[in-house]
Amino acid sequence: MNRTMLTRILSNPGNVKTKFQALQLHAQIIITGNTSSSSHTSTLISIYSNFNNLLHYTILLFHTLHSPPSLVAWKSIIRAYTSHTLFHQALYSFIQMRGFGIYPDHNIFPSVLKSCAVIMDLRLGQSVHGSIIRCGMGSELYTCNALMNMYFKFQGFVALNVFDEIPQRKGVCCTKDLSFGSSESEIKIGSFVDSVRKVFELMPKRDVVSWNTVIAGNVQNGMYEEALIMLREMGNANLKPDSFTLSSVVPIFAEYVDVIKGKEIHGYAIRSGFDSDVFIGSSLIDMYAKCTRMEDSLRVFDLLPRRDAISWNSIIAGCVQNGAFDEGLRFFRLMLSAKIQPMPVTFSSIMPACAHLTTLHLGKQLHGYIIRGRFDENVFIASSLVDMYGKCGNIRMARWIFDRIESHDIVSWTAIIMGYALNGYGNDAISLFEQMEKEGIKPGYVSFIAILTACSHAGLIDRAWDYFNSMTENYGIAPGLEHYAAVADLLGRAGRLEEAYELISNMHIEPTGSVWLTLLAGCRVHKKTELAVKVAEKIFGVDPDNMAAYVLLSNVYAVSGRWKEVAKLRICMRNKGMRKKPACSWIEIKNKVHAFSAGDKSHPYYDRINEALKVLLEKMEREGYVADTNEVLHDVDEEQKKTLLFSHSERLAIAFGVITLPAGTTIRITKNIRVCVDCHTAIKFMSKILGREIIVRDNSRFHHFNGGECSCGDYW
DNA sequence: CTAGGGTTAG
């Protein structure tokens, strides 16, 4: 190859199609001794920068330039850095280029603006905008699109309240190095949406990307109505929504829980042939799931021709959010066997399933996976681990992980406080809450649920009122159903039933059946039949099929011996097709869950369990245990009542734990309804006699039995 | 030759 041929090739760099050709060309330049020609080298840099894994050659060549790099060379190196997500380096090169007095041309600005947007350099971004205007590029289509995108990213950044961090985020980009723009320009918080509007309005021509950028930006900043207006205007401008538009718009209807509108978009996507798009698919899966339409969600997932990590995340999160925990776990396993790498969010989505199922072994397994994948430093994941261990009753592990989180945010604080609350350590929860406030973290809606739960489970009425009032007065948070329920529950169980009734009657939002239900439970504990009937009527007024209310009311009647009423209720329930869910307890032994229901004789070890219970009972009675048959709500004689008590599901599960687990280890069981008074007393005796910790999780909390005491302080 | 999208914990 001679010089003329070389020049011809280099004058038409678009002809270089493969990496091999590029390398060959490089060799030719060296062979023909043309290395000192900076125009040849610049062309080669630009050729190299088009290829993905030739970044090192690009950089190397760039630094061998003898004379100051040309605009082509600068653009190539900036483009190469940007495409390798090395945004700081890209911006540094841009600033250097300006330092050489070289004027950028229109097609370099989009990359520069993107880099500013990614590394959140607000100052440089605005400064580049100034120079764009001064270069007369202020109405160039691509540049304007990139500008609008950048300003929307900035807006989101400001909304996150992390504005203080900006000086540290400057990185290598020091504004003073810029030879253009006002280096000390003030950043006006909240003006970024206005900046977008200005850019958008001044655009002489807008394409689909312009509209998509504005629509997506509005959605990401929570301005849904504005986004929908823009969608309509886009149509008026005779531009058809594409797959990008649709996948930005679908999340709006997920947020609005508007499945009708969501389906409309879905239909449009199908008609336009976008329904196999992974992006749209994922947002549709999420939208249907948030609208509790899991069948539709699953169908979209099944019909996707290609599934990436995000489609898997969406379906897993959807299942878990809708309470289909086993299904969620199934998809998680399928994801792993489909060889799709889980992402940090995957764990955050699946963890609540372990927390709800209290499958500690599964949670531990996931924790192991997280540590091996080095995901454990992610705050999201750490918080969900704290939550999971707290909800599985392993408060020590929850605390251990909590203490290892570098900087605690509101979510991790709330998770640990809730952990202590559920496990009956009300005072620890309160001192953590105070510590959180001291460290300047403002408690939010959920934090108050946690602290009120803590007060409720520890019987701290005055503290609860203090927090309940301070929530509105000091933090401007209006109490929601959960807050009312926690306080009503506390008052109810403390016997202050009239006060609870007053509270619920004067709520600023309409009370639901479940709020009244807490009071009904209080009536049952304190045997207040008249009030119970009144409360039950309130419940059936808003929620006629509330089964828990039927069960509680029938228990209230049973306590006061009104068996006729009990029978009437039973018939009523049967007519409504309701069946009382049988009491059931579980214990996990060697990763296997063993379930027991009261009087259940089906377990293969039944004889040994029964024997163990008998031995235990003898020892308990010697220690002073007397069976309390008051709580047996069946119209039977004393002896039968005792037999019924002794075969309660929690006792069977504990006895099975005693005969299978090594002596001294903790026995953990889960029960689907509240543990009864007599079993609570009995388990206290058991923990003392056996000299081991027994942890019982019922449907609302944990009981840690140790040395004859329970963490709930007999208050539950 | 440069620009835009989906999933997340209490």
Question: Can you describe what's shown?
Answer:
The protein has 716 residues and is mainly α. Among the domains are: 408-478; 490-580; 585-710, no CATH class. Helix content is 64%, strand content 4%. Strands 2-1-3-4-5-6 form a six-stranded mixed beta sheet, with helices on one face. Helix 36 (677-690) links the parallel strand 3 and strand 4. Helix 5 packs antiparallel against helix 6 and helix 13 (243-255) packs antiparallel against helix 14 (259-271). It is elongated and about 110 Å long. 44% of the residues are buried. It binds one DNA strand of 10 nucleotides through helix 5, helix 7, helix 9, helix 11 and helix 13.
List the helices and strands and how they pair.
Blueprint (H helix, E strand, L loop, with lengths): L2 H9 L7 H13 L6 H12 L5 H10 L6 H13 L3 H13 L9 H11 L2 H13 L6 H19 L32 H11 L5 H13 L3 H13 L6 H13 L3 H13 L6 H13 L3 H10 L5 H13 L3 H13 L6 H14 L2 H13 L6 H13 L3 H10 L5 H13 L3 H13 L6 H14 L2 H15 L5 H13 L3 H9 L7 H13 L3 H14 L4 H13 L3 H13 L8 E6 L2 E6 L8 H17 L15 H9 L2 H12 L6 E5 L5 H14 L3 E4 L4 E5 L2 E2 L6
Helix pairs in contact: 2-3, 3-4, 3-5, 4-5, 5-6, 6-7, 7-8, 7-9, 9-10, 9-11, 11-12, 11-13, 13-14, 13-15, 14-15, 15-16, 15-17, 16-17, 17-18, 17-19, 18-19, 19-20, 19-21, 20-21, 21-22, 21-23, 22-23, 23-24, 23-25, 24-25, 25-26, 25-27, 26-27, 27-28, 27-29, 28-29, 29-30, 29-31, 30-31, 31-32, ...
This protein binds one DNA strand of 10 nucleotides through α5, α7, α9, α11 and α13.
Keywords: Repeat
GO molecular function, one term: RNA binding
Pfam family, one: PPR_2
